Amino acid sequence: MSAIVKPPVWFWVVAVIAILWNLLGVYAYLADVMMSPEKLADYPEEEQALIAGRPGWLFGVYAIAVFGGLIGSAALALRKAFAAPIFAVSLAAILIQMGYVFFGMNALSILGLGAAVFPAIICLIGAFLLWFSMQSKSKGWIG
After folding, report:
1. Would you list the domain boundaries of the chain?
2. pLDDT value of residue 7
3. 93: nearest Cα among 58, 117, 52
4. Are 58 and 96 in contact (CB under 8 A)?
5. What transmembrane ranges does the database entry give (predicted)?
6. Are 15 and 73 spatial neighbours (Cβ–Cβ below 8 Å)?
7. I need a labelling partner for 125 at 20 to 30 A (CA). Which of 35, 66, 86, 88 fits?
8. Do residues 97 and 62 make contact, with C-beta atoms less than 8 angstroms apart?
């Protein structure tokens, strides 16, 4: 068993930002799954078809991504080593979700390349949180 070392202040800053980021993800997920027909009607027709055409399993993957990220962030803040495998599952779900939407549903042709910027940022943040949790474990900040 490795010794637990007191983490630096910036560890806590990252952990709190991770929690806030993932709370925003949970909010986005809930807003998406509870979208009213009136709200859906606000979108252009092509986007309405894209939104309505998502398969049910994709919402499950989306839930795993955001709730996994939130649980991983909470585990990080609680200095628990299981943050890393949870972040790994969350990142896998992010990649499956984004990959299917942009390549399986051909969203790039409907939304344009600019629409891929924010999902790319989400993927990078997911990868960073996995890396950070693994580094935190190797430094003894979580255990």
Report:
1. 9-138
2. 97
3. 58
4. no
5. 9-30, 57-78, 85-103, 109-132
6. yes
7. 35
8. yes
Letter for the amino acid at 133?
S
CA distance 62 to 26: 9
Q: DSSP 3-state assignment of 128? A: helix
Note the pTM of the prediction, 2 decimals.
Answer: 0.92
Question: End-to-end alpha-carbon separation of the chain, Å?
Answer: 9
Q: How far is CA 76 from the centre of its chain?
A: 15
C-alpha closest to that of 135 among 22, 18, 13, 7: 7
Express each pLDDT in 79-136 by its tens digit.
999 999 999 999 999 999 999 998 888 888 888 888 899 999 999 999 999 999 999 9
pLDDT of residue 109: 85
Q: Which amino acid would we find at residue 75?
A: A
Cα separation of 77 and 9, whole Å?
A: 12
Distance set, CA 86 to CA 67, 96, 98, 107 (Å): 10, 15, 18, 28
List the structure tokens of 75: 């585990």
